[in-house]
Amino acid sequence: MTNDQLDDQIQDVLHDIPERLTLAEDGVDSSVQQEYLEYTQHLDFDQYSEEDISARSDSLFSPSTPLEDKKEILAVLAHRGTVKAYRIIERFLETAEQALADWGVLALQECRMFVEGSVLDRNVGMLVTGLGGEDDRLRYFLIIHPRSEAAFTSAQKAAIERGFSYICSRFDSILEKVEAHQHYATMMVLIPLDVAVAEVIERGIDQCNTFCDLLDLNYYVRNDRIPTEAEILHYLQEMRRCRE
């Protein structure tokens, strides 16, 4: 996906944004998101009485309850949209088995969406990405690299962090983490929904290049997951080929 396509997707979301948006802070794998959406679309929530939900909620905490049954209970609780249901899901997540952790996060965020919609008496939407977010910001994973084949010096690494920190402050963004490797650097950046991702990154690169032509203008960014080391190395190899 190109950077322009990524920005276009964010703008599409903004056009359809409800009066209030609940942003999931924890990242959830896209395959689990799709599974959860398809699962809840086919559930008949009217078939569950209050007494039935209350009785079945206790089974969430039993090791003998099948995973599929727990998925159903979590989805039903999420759609109840009550504070009590939210607290039950929240308590479940404290000790949830790994196989249900992401499912539980989605259920919790959906329940929160319904609770807020009820309390605020207005439309509320939920946005979940692979890397999550915070408040009204989405989290992005970024790779930048030098123009030359030379490794970053310690002074250059410090300059990169200063440059991006300054630009992030100008765009209400947060530079959460910087990791400098020999021939590239990675970052975790929180960027507001109404700010173009490319604007922050390209301004950051320009800022770092103000006093020396340090960084390549090409970069790698995504918000669905953190790429593997093999994927990162493949990207860097492709960039080297482009310069040859």
Percent strand: 5-15%
CATH superfamily of the largest domain: Transposase IS200-like
How much helical structure, as a percent, in the residues? 40-55%
* Major sheet size, sense and barrel closure: 5 strands, antiparallel
Q: Which class of the largest domain in CATH terms?
A: Alpha Beta
Order of helices and strands: HEHHHHHEEEHEEHEH
Descriptors:
single chain, 244 residues, alpha+beta, Alpha-Beta Plaits, 2 domains, five-stranded antiparallel beta sheet, two-stranded parallel sheet, 15% strand
Describe it.
With 244 residues, the protein is α+β, with helices and mostly antiparallel strands. The chain has two domains: 28-127, no CATH class; 133-243, 2-Layer Sandwich (Alpha-Beta Plaits). Helix content is 52%, strand content 15%. The protein has nine helices and seven strands, in the order H-E-H-H-H-H-H-E-E-E-H-E-E-H-E-H. Strands 3, 4, 5, 6 and 7 form a five-stranded antiparallel β-sheet that branches. A hairpin with a 4-residue loop joins strand 5 (174-180) and strand 6. Helix 7 crosses helix 8. Mean pLDDT is 79; it is low at 13-24.
